[in-house]
Design brief:
Elements (H helix, E strand, L loop, with lengths): L1 H11 L41 H12 L4 E5 L2 H13 L5 E5 L4 H9 L3 E5 L1 E4 L2 E5 L1 H10 L4 E5 L10 H8 L3 E5 L19 E5 H4 L7 E5 L6 H11 L6 H32 L7 E3 L8 E5 L7 H10 L6 E2 L3 E5 L6 H16 L21 H6 L2 E4 L13 E4 L3 E4 L7 H12 L3 E2 L6 E4 L1
Parallel strand pairs: 2-3, 2-6, 6-7, 7-8
Antiparallel strand pairs: 1-9, 4-5, 8-9, 10-11, 11-13, 12-13, 14-18, 15-16, 15-17
Bound molecules: pyridoxal-5'-phosphate.
Cofactor: pyridoxal 5'-phosphate
Organism: Anaerococcus porci
Protein name: Aminotransferase class V-fold PLP-dependent enzyme
Length: 443
């Protein structure tokens, strides 16, 4: 085990004339930081970018845990795994089909690998994307030959796709699954390794390893694992953090205990979801990972910011705030007392609220495309006033945060509906990354 080996190394008290530069010297440096456990690929220790001993052993254990054909550890989060997986699978065919509300790293992959991306439409309710449009997916697959489909399940908010249905529709097209928010699903029957060809997950989001620990789960023997790893070594630092790796080691060592903790988490969650609310509302359904607690304050006299400010005053930290809901992330490491505090605070708050009709509903449509993202980003750009952008080609991404859906991406064409939707969102104080003077368009 990596941790045991390091314990021994520390005890042996070597004089360090190797990296890192801090030399484990705590005379000056802050004693609270883990300098003594921070090493690099010194004698007897392994290289994560070409694992042969300790890291190979860790990857073999993760392979067993995730019941997969192969596993590659990432010390650069899911971001690195997403870039590597997409690059590997799109070497021969640049056409890719992508869920519209994909993470920025997917859009970065489209840009840097110069991919020709089409987007799968979303279904929206309560201002959140809760699923994809399966008919849209099927139609797009009929009309083009894609190297891969990039999907996200569970989403940031916890919504799960019907991956079995997608498997049937997609036939032989490979599925790259962004499972950044689902490393813990292996503790549940919600995880099925047969649902994807390659998945990328972040241990730091829902399990115990330190930020940004993650990994790539390969489940199709035909995927060139060496090429995925070569790409990981391209996008990942050449000095992967041993501190992060030890936290992965610790996670692996404790994994069996996680199943019990997951049962307790579910009991606590059931208890929470059972409380009767008059104004606030839990957003939940059977296709949702319930550890992502979504509470809507739509049609009440407060907005999401008021809601989260109130919780913060009561010392409750939330994950994300939107104008009409908040997201709280729970994990197997939350304790009963955390849930009691949350429960009581929400009950008290709910009592003091009243009904107020909310006329705003988030909506969006995918604009028509003139150019690929990469082509558009390389063109000369200028800013036009909002009112003069109709039929112009966007030179930038405009995101609505939350729910994290791009309203337009570089190369897509503004139309009157999109412009008026953006104006509406601005009126609702939805966070949009827009220049002050107007929209960035191609010159
Ligand atoms: C859906 C999704 N995918 C991928 C990532 C990237 O994960 P990481 O921070 O581990 O690189 C994130 C980050 O929040 C995310 O929300």
């Amino acid at each position: 085990m990596l941790i045991d080996k390091l314990d021994q190394y520390i005890e042996d008290n070597y004089y360090s004339f190797a990296m890192p530069g801090h030399k484990r010297n705590k005379n000056i440096l802050n004693k609270a930081l883990p300098y003594d456990r921070d090493i690099t690929e010194i004698r007897g220790f392994d290289n994560l970018n070409d694992p042969k001993t300790i890291f190979k052993d860790m990857e073999d254990k993760l392979k067993e845990i995730y019941k997969s054909f192969d596993f590659i550890i990432s010390t650069n989060g899911s971001t690195c795994g997403i870039l590597s997986s997409i690059r590997t699978l799109t070497r021969k065919n640049k056409n890719i089909l992508v869920q519209r509300n994909s993470h920025k790293s997917v859009y970065n992959a489209i840009e840097i690998f110069n991919l020709d991306a089409d987007f799968i439409d979303l279904l929206i309710d309560c201002d959140i994307a809760y699923d994809i449009d399966y008919d849209d997916l099927e139609n797009k697959l009929k009309n083009k030959d894609y190297s891969a489909i990039v999907l996200t399940s569970p989403s940031y908010e916890g919504f799960m796709l019907n991956l079995k249905r997608i498997r049937k529709i997609s036939k032989n097209t490979k599925i790259i699954l962004d499972m950044a928010h689902g490393s813990h699903l292996i503790l549940d029957k919600l995880y099925d390794e047969l649902d994807f060809d390659i998945a990328i997950t972040s241990f730091h989001k829902n399990l115990s390893a330190l930020t940004p620990a993650g990994g790539v789960i390969i489940n199709n023997k035909s995927i060139d694992k060496k090429e995925v790893r070569r790409n990981m070594a391209i996008f990942q630092t050449s000095s992967p953090s041993y501190i992060i790796c030890q936290s992965i080691d610790d996670m692996i060592d404790n994994f069996q205990k996680f199943y019990m903790l997951y049962n307790s988490l579910n009991e606590n969650l059931d208890d929470l979801y059972n409380i009767k609310l008059s104004n606030l509302k839990f957003i939940n359904n059977k296709n949702k990972d319930k550890s992502k607690i979504l509470i809507s304050c739509k049609n009440t006299n407060i907005n999401g910011n008021d809601f989260s400010n109130f919780l913060y005053k009561k010392k409750i930290e939330v994950e994300m705030v939107s104008y009409s809901y908040i997201l709280l992330l729970s994990s197997i490491f939350n304790q009963k007392k955390d849930f009691n505090k949350l429960k009581q605070t929400i009950i008290n708050m709910d009592k003091n609220l009243s009904y107020k009709k909310d006329s705003f509903d988030f909506s969006y449509k995918i604009p028509k495309r003139a150019l690929s993202i990469n082509d558009a980003l390389r063109r000369k750009k200028k800013i036009v006033d909002f009112n003069n952008a109709d039929k112009k080609i966007s030179g930038s991404f405009i995101y609505a945060y939350p729910p994290g859906i791009p309203l337009i991406v570089p190369g897509e064409i503004f139309d009157i509906d999109i412009i008026s939707n953006i104006k509406n969102l601005l009126e609702q104080s939805v966070q949009l990354n827009i220049e002050k003077g107007g929209f960035i368009i191609l010159d």
